[in-house]
Design goal:
By secondary structure, the protein is of the alpha/beta class. The chain has a single domain, classed as Flavodoxin domain (Rossmann fold), CATH 3.40.50. It is built from 9 helices and 10 strands. Strand 5 and strand 6 form a beta hairpin. Helix 1 crosses helix 9. The radius of gyration is 18 Å and the shape is globular. The structure holds flavin mononucleotide. The site of flavin mononucleotide (FMN) has 19 residues, from helix 1 and strand 5. This is Flavodoxin-like domain-containing protein.
Length: 233
Amino acid sequence: MTDVSNDPTESQPKPRVLLVYYSFTGQSRGVLEAAGDVFRERGCEVDAAPIEFTDPRFADNFSRFPMKRVWRDMFSVLPAQSRKVSGEIRTPDEVRTGDYDLVCIGSPTWWKDASMPIRSFLQSDEAKTTLSGKSFAVFVVCRRYWRENMDAVRTMGEQRGGRMLGGIHFTYPGGQVRSMLSLTSFLGSGQYRERYLGVRIPPTNVQPQQLDEARLFAAQLLDQWSAQTQANN
Ligand SMILES: Cc1cc2nc3c(=O)[nH]c(=O)nc-3n(C[C@H](O)[C@H](O)[C@H](O)COP(=O)(O)O)c2cc1C
């Protein structure tokens, strides 16, 4: 684990941090929790706000892990993702009532874009309450396609009045086909297997060294936020 707990800037102001994310298999939650540990070690107050995907058209497919029928369940959201529409979600009170200085957004990629639950939050009035006048950072987690997701979250976050402080992405091992088979195998079984459909597959999901990267990024974000805050005072 990267040692980022030694804070040379004890006297600096500490932001109140909100970790807001959607996470179907826990990968986005995992990287935000690693970052959250660093914020806490350095004296910040940290709250988590997991988003629930409650849209009646899709909730059933995303209500259980592993997926019941993986290809059908994954494809069920493709038309809506392509149209960039939002859907029904449930959010914790923190996004409405909290007053945070730094909002970390955990955003898994769905069909080369931000997932419908994250888009739905970022297009809501609640997101204006959470983000307006605040710094935010984006943590994209995906098998391979991170850029469109990052750009979409940045655009929507800025439209809600936030200032993007930084972004980081985490992708999964393996080439195009094998990484997709490995992810699909995991989503449909909940297990890490060595072969799927007769093909040898690489590991999937966020790897331990990527949690170290998340910790380092959190420490850098905090330094950046402190420097900006001191410069503005
Ligand atoms: C419906 C669906 C569509 C996906 N589409 C993509 C994609 O187009 N590109 C990609 O790199 N990963 C894709 N993925 C993989 C996810 O990004 C990956 O499983 C995600 O990062 C897991 O994070 P989570 O456990 O926090 O939800 C998709 C996953 C799902 C469930």
